[in-house]
Amino acid sequence: MTDPKAVVMYVPLVGLLTWAAVVDVRSRRIPNWLTLTLVLCGLVRPLVMPHCPITFVMALAGMGIAAGFGITKIVLAGSGAGDMKLLAGVGAWLGPWPTLLLIAVSAIVAMLIAIIQSASQRRFKTVARDALLLSADFVSRPRAGIVPSAATASTGGASDVSASNETAHPHERARTMPFAVAVLIATVCVLIYLALGGR
């Protein structure tokens, strides 16, 4: 994507991610319908757009890489399925190589958000520990004092949000990191890099 005008094709992606980030900030929830829309649009786009920069196979590969990393994050970091589905949706839009770049940038952005959030809540003793955990897992483990946006999510049924978020105390929600914000910022950075001729 060397032509800056090609970025216009990703306006729907940025729009959906912005919506997800707003919802995540306000309620620490990433609705299933939104992540499903991201996935479906990302997979259908190469089939209906004649000048799409990626093929359907590349969209599948990007989705698979992102989903695989999201599953690993669930197992190792205790994050929720909502984070994995959000990553998979973005991966379907970007393709394999940009998805790998997205994962790296998201890790850095999430770490910075954790540090800022910890400092703003005057939890200085946990800042360094949160940063180390987030650099490896995107979000710190629950014992570090910051819980992923969909941590301990219930993946059963057709529920749009995790049970833990529905019953979370307002003070606990204030300490939860909105993962969708990190994904949005990282996605914009990756798109700008690609528009400027990045490979």
Q: How would you describe the overall organization of this protein?
A:
The termini are close together. The chain has one domain. With 199 residues, it is mainly α. Helices cover 68% and strands 0% of the residues.
Q: How many angstroms separate the termini?
A: 8 Å
Quaternary structure of the protein: single chain
- Average pLDDT rating: 76
How many helical elements?
9
Instruction: Supply the number of structural domains.
Output: 1
Radius of gyration: 16 Å
Which key phrases capture this entry?
199 residues; mainly alpha; 9 helices
Q: Could you give the topology of this structure?
A:
Elements: H1 11-27, H2 32-48, H3 56-77, H4 81-94, H5 96-120, H6 124-137, H7 163-167, H8 170-174, H9 179-195
The gist of it:
With 199 residues, the chain is mostly helical. It has helices at residues 11-27, 32-48, 56-77, 81-94, 96-120, 124-137, 163-167, 170-174, 179-195.
